Amino acid sequence: MATLADFKTSEKSWWCPGCGDFGVLAALQKSLVALDLEPEKLAIVAGIGCSGKIGNYVNGYNLHVVHGRVLPSAMGVRLANRDLTVIGVGGDGDAYAIGMGHFMHALRRNVNLTYLVMDNHIYGLTKGQYSPTSDSGFKTKTTPAGNIEAPVRPLTTAVAGGATFVAQGFSSWQPQLAELIQAGVRHPGFALINIISPCVTYNKVNTYDWYKQNLTNLASDDAYDPTDRVAALTRLNATDELVTGLIYRDPTSVPYEDRVAHLAKEPLAHQDGPVDQAVWDKILAQLG
Amino acid sequence: MATLADFKTSEKSWWCPGCGDFGVLAALQKSLVALDLEPEKLAIVAGIGCSGKIGNYVNGYNLHVVHGRVLPSAMGVRLANRDLTVIGVGGDGDAYAIGMGHFMHALRRNVNLTYLVMDNHIYGLTKGQYSPTSDSGFKTKTTPAGNIEAPVRPLTTAVAGGATFVAQGFSSWQPQLAELIQAGVRHPGFALINIISPCVTYNKVNTYDWYKQNLTNLASDDAYDPTDRVAALTRLNATDELVTGLIYRDPTSVPYEDRVAHLAKEPLAHQDGPVDQAVWDKILAQLG
Amino acid sequence: MAETRGVAWKIGGDQGEGIDSTGDALATVANRMGYYVYGYKSFSSRIKGGHTNYKVRVATVPVEATTDTTDVLVALNQETIDKNVAEVPAGGLVLADAAFHPVLPAGHAGAHLIELPLTQIAKELGSVLMRNMVAVGASAALMNLPLEPFQDYVARRFGSKGAAVVGPNQAAVQRGYDQIRAEAGHLTQIRLGDPHPGDRVVITGNDALALGALAGGCRIMAAYPITPASDVMEALIKWMPLVGGVVVQSEDEIAAINLAIGAGFTGARAMTATSGPGFSLMQEALGLASMTETPVVVADIQRSGPSTGMPTKQEQSDLLQMLNGSHGESPRIVLTPSSIPEAFADGMDAFNLAEQYQCPVLIASDLSLGLWTQSVERSVLDRTRAPIVRGAMVTERDLEDVPSGQFKRYALTESGVSPRSVPGMKHGQFLATGAEHAESGKVSEDPANRVQMMQKRFRKLEGFAREGVRREGPADADMTLLSVGSTVGILREAAGMLAAQGHRVGLVWLRVLAPFPTRALIEALAGSRRVLVVEQNATGQVLNLMRTHGIGHEPRFHSFLKYDGVPFTPGEVVQQAAAVLDLAEVL
Amino acid sequence: MAETRGVAWKIGGDQGEGIDSTGDALATVANRMGYYVYGYKSFSSRIKGGHTNYKVRVATVPVEATTDTTDVLVALNQETIDKNVAEVPAGGLVLADAAFHPVLPAGHAGAHLIELPLTQIAKELGSVLMRNMVAVGASAALMNLPLEPFQDYVARRFGSKGAAVVGPNQAAVQRGYDQIRAEAGHLTQIRLGDPHPGDRVVITGNDALALGALAGGCRIMAAYPITPASDVMEALIKWMPLVGGVVVQSEDEIAAINLAIGAGFTGARAMTATSGPGFSLMQEALGLASMTETPVVVADIQRSGPSTGMPTKQEQSDLLQMLNGSHGESPRIVLTPSSIPEAFADGMDAFNLAEQYQCPVLIASDLSLGLWTQSVERSVLDRTRAPIVRGAMVTERDLEDVPSGQFKRYALTESGVSPRSVPGMKHGQFLATGAEHAESGKVSEDPANRVQMMQKRFRKLEGFAREGVRREGPADADMTLLSVGSTVGILREAAGMLAAQGHRVGLVWLRVLAPFPTRALIEALAGSRRVLVVEQNATGQVLNLMRTHGIGHEPRFHSFLKYDGVPFTPGEVVQQAAAVLDLAEVL
Ligand SMILES: Cc1ncc(C[n+]2csc(CCOP(=O)(O)OP(=O)(O)O)c2C)c(N)n1
Ligand SMILES: Cc1ncc(C[n+]2csc(CCOP(=O)(O)OP(=O)(O)O)c2C)c(N)n1
Ligand code: SF4
Ligand code: SF4
Ligand SMILES: [Mg+2]
Ligand SMILES: [Mg+2]
């Protein structure tokens, strides 16, 4: 059984001291141990951004793709080998700006992936431009007079877009975050976990303190039924998405790969023999 | 005052006889007349697909862009000249597959555009592959065993994504469709009108008859309040989006271009003098 | 009329009128009879309406190009006559549906117009839809082909629909046949030479490519529909379930290639196929595959550009993009199949090459090669022609001694290729990143490391061994014709015609554009007094590429370009070649 | 020490420690004093932590490149010494914060280590944040620069924060200055020559480009953040409100360029700016702009590729992509600015060219040119240097006689340029489509039309008149150095050094890559015995491009490449040039 040390790499983190991403990394590593995974069965597909560097610090098979393309690549990984636990990670820009199209399609395809979006409401790595989740009025390098756009609401969008598992965690609330990650990995389908992960360098508004004051924890609301889609939308609307916990889960979720007719159970990655003679003959017979 | 003839071109339509797109064209042309527009003040930005050819048949300034990029281009047109009426058009593939990312961002930016999506649940021009709005189980060239994906729900997605005007029309129901187009053009912000426009060649399931049997008209429900976002989501959920009419409208909508600080009112397209000396000096003074 | 080595038959009408399936019928039957066929469709970017035509060459020798002329033109409307009669030579036949009162335009008195009430006969038999079957029967009569194979074909094709469909269709074929014999027997003078019965199939380049991919171990395919590449996906959608693989119609081309890269990283053989617009969208990801040394195969079935261009028209104009399309400098392999056998071979070998060299392999096909049909020996489609070779891989055995997390995925080796692990292998974990990295995969901006890694990636292709150039004909040719892709078949035909005129003509074609086979090309052209580089684009991309590599500046090199969307005909090439041969001696 | 024409000062520490603003302070002050400065930042792709340094050359003559050596190294940590001391020559100075107990590595005894308690002094004055100001004061003393201009700078920079901030910072500068004079007076031997007071600003290439764009009439800019191009957007975000324009930070680069194209179609001058990864994503849209003949300006501030590469490192490796990156064949203009004045000029002229030739204009800048600062005469930034010329446009007057809907937007003209209308003009409506089209704009697949339209689009650039090549130095040079972009400044410096050694050396640089200035380049190089093509990439893209055009195959051409992310130093070029000059006579 793997220990925490097994999921660490020798790479020193490149994040700023105090960055929320440290907490995400810690919760992820704890979850991997709790899930009883082995590093070689773990595939992390990460995007570009401060957030996207998380894969560099987790011992596993890591694919660090180009900006915004985590989800298509992760789908490729999973289809190639269904024995793997596949985790996608990226920032709010990576996921919800350039990656938005893929995100919407991933929701409805429902491949068995866990997607951790490290949301700091800012572009960290490019030094402080506003992001799609930046609040209206927020001042950044590219919105010196305040953001004039309405932000993307990732949770609402996900639930409305057909997601089968939607949750929100907070980098500082480790136990809950770790639990959500584990639940996401166990979920048979696409699991979105939006994670509030403050950027201490470029976002001086949505700080740890600000979140501690503004977030409410769904887990403390016994009446909340996370299998009710409309209730989820209503709650998100009422709270302006300032909630943590499991927001929605479709208990009937069947992952994409289980719906592909005749998809081999054994990893496609290992198939390297010639096509069966009988199959070949059958195909050639279809030709003119 | 322009007449219907003024909005026609000499180009003969390339659509199959019976295609739903004819109805969309007719309703659009009628609406342009009813709105008292002039051809030179009309800019149509069209995507690629059978649907995207609609611009070829409307006399106006037509920009026929590459697949999926209607909305960014239309935004550019509108920002360049706020005197223009800008209408984006495209198919369900153009809008909701390759164009999905831009769609989501257009919703929340709320530029004053009208977006007509001619939805036939299929890729027409490429000869019959399934589209993002194709129903589960639908058999097409690329889903010979039936579609295994859950479809995009464009109306729900739009309302949840922050749209300020969402409607659905049906190519066969001309008066309502024309009214919706006019309301969309008048709306001060981004107006999505998803238009059911049957493909008679490649979609033998979602036919005119099928829609006539399955669609309900919201206009006949006096109790429905299209300014209530949650009610809209609830209704869409209950009807599986098989409704026509105005689904949601935000009466407080302020278009993007009105929120850009210091954006010139006169068309940027006409600005071609040198920068004012005083402005230039001010800028140079900011340099080291 | 004397026996002929080939007949060119063409049917034309409006799109959506079954022109395709009628042409396919003739091609299939003629192929089964033992003739070699080449089928060429001309269509436009709309679904119904607008002129379309399908030309089928039926020959006693292998054919790889269309012809300048049409011996039998079947016209379902007047437009077909107007647009195509110019290519019907004196003595040629125009079979037209009497329903539209056909007329031959002035100046085409040499052709025989045969009016047949196709529509009326079809109606009499129960449905106007059978009009084309009447035409098929009539065509058989006009070309003096036996009727049974056509009736067999009808039985097979409609068999699943039952006798109520088969019967009338067979009757339609019969009626067409009989009526020609009765009314135009004096015009049935075509005498095709004996067929060469064999075990052949009629297949398109796209299908051959897809079959090759399947045989080459492709088990994941992701693509977005686009003319003229969609067939590759559609063929694999049909076949992939038979081998347990999966095809994903993705939301766009960016998703498609990134999905394939994810699969390639994981060790599955994966590909995508597209045409120009989609290929442009894939440029960023190509760099990622090259940088992470991830195998991936991308087929670009080129069409007329730029931008939306003419989506249903032929062109070979993405070639330089395939070499230079991504930012920065990322090694890749570019294969250029020029025939059905080469399309199958490249479709198959691409996966071996991608894994052996751990980089993207691009297949530069084109619309003509992709869509047109051709007879080919069934034995060419050999699922075992090359064994699957996975390139340098570590085994779990090898990894036993590697401490977890310390595997050097990008070890600096002499060949530049580093043995790779794939997810699932214990102790093989590593970071594959598009950022510059050290041997371990860790991100590095160290200048010395950077140089080593760039050199390593480029070094991989230095020893690239695959045949890059092919040659036919005399080495000391008066003229060598040179091209890539589907144009090569046309040049072969032209070369034959020129040889028949007594010229010493050679044929050279490139099988690989990157790494560029400089030495082999110099050798192949060494003895030629003149070289005519024939390309279907406006800027002479192949010749420009040759020039970059120092070949092609001398006056013996000539360029012949076409970019109107219509493939060269052999006759056009012959004419241009003759003009160049007539030029004063080169200096 | 004798008077010197320049001093190279460098400060290094961890990222996030204010290295940038400290370097800016020195550069700004020295520039105001009348010295010419060149500032060069080395940083990596992270926000805090990791070594960064900023080198400022202060000179009595204009300088456009960094130096091989550093005369004064200010080290905020030991790593800075370890990584940079090699470039400090014997007699050079290393000023280090005593707080980290600095040591000079063995072998660098020739440099003087000066320990100063920077941190301690700053703390005494109230905040450790002022450490760098102490270093600035100390640096002034070491370079024998007067203190007042530094104090003025502090007053201006912190003025808005009030006396409570200004006072202590000025005190910090003073303390650093005094302490050096007191403790290391014997080491303050640098004697810079007299400054040349003038009206100069210190500016980056990105800012110059943005300013040029503004002066050139750019009123819409859309971009997506990316290093090293984000500044172009950020500068325009600051300035655009002053002219009533708008900058959109779009959701990705595809949206950015398509937005700009929409604006260009509508008649507004519009641009985007990006770097490699974003540029790859723009390839499809570039073809659209070319095909619809829509003006649009795209700046690619190149960085080290491929893929994510080394985002903060210099490279010139997207050049061939700029020419060939899109599918099909789409005419475009590619400008290559090599200096601040050229960046301003190209930023400005690009918009005139885009409208005159109705096609995309690409500006190939690079990280070194984009990010590093330089002194430049304020008069260079002349908002009126070229009047705005909108190219061929129809007027509403012209359109009066055109029946509505019948305007021929793509009229076949001799120049290939067709007068255009923009939305709003009565009777000027037309269809702009990426599909092939006729003169009216209507989609057409007619082969003859296709040829005419392709030729028309290419013909536009045949008469391209803008200067394509620039030359300095003797025409009959023993060696001519050739490059593009920021490398040119380095070559100029190297050429000066070689000339000082007695060589006849020339300098040639390309101002335009497309349309390629073949004739001008042949002429510019005609008299040179040797040509050294110096490029910051791995494959020799400029030389390859020259070869495509028939220039560069002879043995007098030599290639010198660097692709480790670090710009050439003049010394490296001199060394290579000397080696080539030493070669046996060329054949
Ligand atoms: C195609 C492309 N465009 C732009 C960039 C530059 N870029 C790097 S990271 C980033 C966004 C960072 O924001 P986010 O995704 O929120 O991640 P964070 O750094 O905040 O964790 C951008 C735009 C890129 N690498 N590739
Ligand atoms: C980048 C790119 N990819 C693919 C295509 C091919 N293509 C043309 S139209 C189309 C989709 C058509 O479907 P839809 O948008 O629903 O329009 P419809 O024809 O059904 O009206 C596609 C994929 C293209 N032109 N460009
Ligand atoms: S810039 Fe922000 S997001 Fe990036 S590492 Fe620093 S604190 Fe974290
Ligand atoms: S294929 Fe379908 S969508 Fe296209 S024109 Fe025909 S009916 Fe209309
Ligand atoms: Mg972020
Ligand atoms: Mg559609």
Short description:
The complex is a heterotetramer, with two copies of chain A (288 residues) and two copies of chain C (587 residues). Chain A is an alpha/beta fold. Chain A has helices at 21-34, 70-80, 92-96, 100-109, 154-160, 174-186, 208-214, 229-239, 256-259, 277-286; strands at 42-46, 61-64, 85-91, 114-119, 122-123, 129-130, 165-170, 191-196, 216-217, 243-249.
Structural commentary:
The complex is a heterotetramer, with two copies of chain A (288 residues) and two copies of chain C (587 residues). Chain A contains ten helices and ten strands. Chain A is α/β, with parallel strands linked by helices. Chain A has a single domain, classed as Rossmann fold (3-Layer(aba) Sandwich). Chain A has an eight-stranded mixed sheet, sandwiched between helices. Chain A is globular, with a radius of gyration of 20 Å. The termini of chain A are far apart. With 587 residues, chain C is α/β, with parallel strands linked by helices. Chain C folds into four domains: 181 residues, 3-Layer(aba) Sandwich (Pyruvate-ferredoxin Oxidoreductase, domain 3), CATH 3.40.920.10; 177 residues, 3-Layer(aba) Sandwich (Rossmann fold); 71 residues, no CATH class; 118 residues, Rossmann fold (3-Layer(aba) Sandwich), CATH 3.40.50. Chain C contains 20 helices and 23 strands. In chain C, the strands form four sheets. Chain C has an eight-stranded mixed sheet with strand order 7-6-5-2-4-3-16-9, with helices on both faces. In chain C, strands 11-10-12-13-15-14-21 form a seven-stranded mixed sheet, sandwiched between helices. A five-stranded mixed sheet of chain C has the order 18-20-19-22-23, sandwiched between helices. Classes of the chains: A alpha/beta (288), C alpha/beta (587). Chains in contact: A-B, A-C, A-D, B-C, B-D, C-D. Strand 2 of chain A pairs parallel with strand 17 of chain C, so a sheet runs across the interface. The site of one iron/sulfur cluster has 11 residues of chain B, from loops. The site of one magnesium ion has 9 residues of chain B, from helix 3 and strand 5.
